[in-house]
Amino acid sequence: MTQGTSKRDGHFIQNSPSQKVSSERLQRIGIIGGGIIGLATALKLRERLPDAEIVVWEKESEPGRHQSTHNSGVLHAGLYYKPGSLKARLAVEGLHMMVQFCREHGIAHDLCGKIVVAIDDTELPRLKLLLERGKANGLRGLEWLSQDRIKEFEPHAAGVAALRVPQEGIVDYHAVIHKMTEILRASGGELQTSANVVDIVADGDSWIIKKKRGEDRCDFLINCAGLYSDKVSVLAGEKRNVRIVPFRGEYFKLRAGSEGLVRHLIYPVPDPLFPFLGVHFTRMIHGGVEAGPNAVLAGAREGYTKRIIHPAELLDALSYRGLWNFIAQHKRMCWEEIKRSFSKKLFCASLQRLIPELQESDLEEGGAGVRAQAMNPQGELLQDFCFIERPNALHVLNAPSPGATASLAIGGEIARKVGSQMS
Predict the structure, then answer these.
(1) Model-level pTM?
(2) 28-32 and 220-223: which strand pairing?
(3) What one-character DSSP code corresponds to residue 261?
(4) DSSP letter at 381?
(5) What is the mean pLDDT of residues 361-367?
């Protein structure tokens, strides 16, 4: 623990009324992390607390360099998430807010819809459960497709039935980041780039933010550091009860002559024994089709290729008992993912379950992303969004997919929480 850092016990604590922040004292709100959630939070704080100073510290030379733009560009409608969970509510709210934002600012997006395909009869009960879950979460226009009707939407897809989700879509998240940055600065908010935070020291009721170059201060601290959110929380005195374990998701893309195999979005029915969604097909907003991702342990928190290894970060993951518990619970899946990472043939075979016509020659190497996925010591991936609330701080410890889609709703939720401490 850094000397001078305040220590607090407990985890996932809601503030009591006696812990509220004085609106007379609160002048400057600092956000660590200039990804899409950090920027969205800054915008929503500007709306709710127009008299407060808002500053965002981003370690890179420009915002949104990591999870925010290293993804498939999907607008997730909230189909998979447990009804009543924070993730379900904010995903549905966030989709509407993101679409409205894109419409208002002329950002490329397309609510093209997707289908979730049951390959055989054994997957039908899980597909029906998804239908019920989607309805419970407020999704509109869900449609059960027979084997014949699948071909109307995706002529090359194969399955015994499918669920059509018309509210799902695709978007240009690079353009979203650019517009959010522009609006923040135009509204008087401050975005500091190349501002890597290396220490946080409590100073009474406020914080001293130590960066590689210089220091800053804030009265209320918000941690939106994504892949480093757990480490930033420790700098602010929190116990690391969960840990970010970086799973890289690798993609192929369809060659130009093969893109006609996919019209929009094609997903498998999730395997309940597999903690990720499985490989799928995604048409991209500016053209092209991605196929993937898999899920393999990354050699660094920003390890977008197999060659990127940061020994200290890899050791941090490998020394965590939660990871070994996870591996013990998913031995076969972990081994299959590793093999698929090194074998185009095996990767193609997984994709062929959805599109049997696909051949290895249709695939070329694509990009990759790293999930900022929180894991507990029991080896369980946190399924819901996760915040830690303190009298003068809030930490976003788990906001993986659909974090980008839900970013404006997450930002609104954080602004509401901060605002309630001032009322």
Answers:
(1) 0.93
(2) parallel
(3) G
(4) B
(5) 96
